[in-house]
Amino acid sequence: MPNKKIKTIFNVVEEKSKPARMNLYGFIGATYWDDEEQSVTTKAVNQALKEITADEIDVHINSYGGDAFEGIGIYNALKQSNKTINIYIDALAASAASIVAMAGDKIYMPENSQLMVHHAATMIYGDASDLESAVADLNKMDKSLVLTYMTRFTGTEDELTALLDAGTFLNTDEAVALGLADEVIEYVEPQEPQEPQEPKEPEEPKSVANIKEKLIAKYHGKIAAKVVTKHKRQPTIAEKLINLAKEAE
Fold first, then answer.
1. Residue of 62, 117, 121 lying closest to 95 (CA atoms)
2. Cβ neighbours of residue 68 under 8 Å, at least 6 residues apart?
3. What is each CA distance from 121 to 26, 66, 94, 138, in whole angstroms?
4. What does the radius of gyration of the chain's CA atoms come to, in whole angstroms?
5. Distance, CA of 249 to CA of 119 (rounded, Å)
6. Positive or negative: CA dihedral 43, 115, 23, 88
7. Domains present along the chain, CATH in parentheses
8. What's the CA gap between 215 and 195, in Å, rounded?
9. Please, how many CA atoms are within 13 Å of residue 78, restricted to the half-sphere of its CB?
10. What whole-number distance in Å separates Cα of residue 92 and Cα of residue 117?
11. What is the per-residue pLDDT across 100-142, written as a single tens digit (0 to 9) for each?
12. What is the pairing mode between strands 20-25 and 106-110?
């Protein structure tokens, strides 16, 4: 069966006997410019899910984030799809995109990718009443974010809150340790089969001390010569008089 491309902004592809692929690249939620090529919305994800016939989907994410409510909406859409969702963080899943990533039955991170989490944020203009209302709304949103992260986070809610307070970037090892990812992907070049060889004597481990000693042994002569030339001692007055006397004889 040839590849089947579904007409969405996500470049969804289905191939026989393989998981479908969905690319969630770009801003989470509608952009100010209504640029559908750069927007990842709950509506569009739901439409793609309806059209995908495969029972398993590889969802690839690379996004700085966006609208927190859209992130939660996409998270819930993926969780409610009754499909196996494999999340791949291709480079970065930040802010609302990290919420989307939590929908994975498995979350995979290439070793050079990152996950970023922080508290809900907003831009507000108004009087004290408007600001107080915004704070209350943000606190409610934070509770929704915490509930989502805690479905995976291995620590306590207080520890998670501390991470959100700091606006934390997590590398792959850190994300796995905290339960926010499952596996680190390492890309290894395929090796050509080689003829069996005679066993070699084990090499001495390359410690920092060994490397330093080798460099000193290699460059000691040159370094010493430079030092002597640079700091050559001038003769004293007495030595100069003795030398003059010797020359006069």
1. 117
2. 95, 96, 99, 120, 141, 144, 145
3. 19, 10, 13, 7
4. 31
5. 92
6. negative
7. 4-185 (3.90.226.10), 208-248 (no CATH)
8. 34
9. 25
10. 11
11. 999 999 999 999 999 999 876 656 676 677 566 656 666 677 7
12. unpaired
**CB neighbour list of residue 183: distance below 8 Å, 6 or more residues apart:** 106, 107, 108, 109, 176
Which residues lie closer than 8 Å to 137 by C-beta, 6 or more apart? 122
Longest CA–CA span in the chain (Å) reads 111
> Cβ contacts of residue 54 below 8 Å, gap of 6+?
14, 18, 19, 20, 83
pTM flag (> 0.90)? no
How many angstroms separate the Cα of 106 from the Cα of each of 6, 57, 100, 164? 24, 11, 12, 23
| Cross-strand pairs, 117 | 168
Distance from C-alpha of 178 to C-alpha of 109, rounded to nearest angstrom: 13
Query: CA-CA-CA-CA torsion for 78, 81, 83, 89, nearest 10 degrees?
Result: -10
pLDDT tens track for 170-218: 999 889 988 999 999 887 766 666 677 776 666 655 554 454 455 445 5
Angle (CA) 146 35 65, round 5°: 20
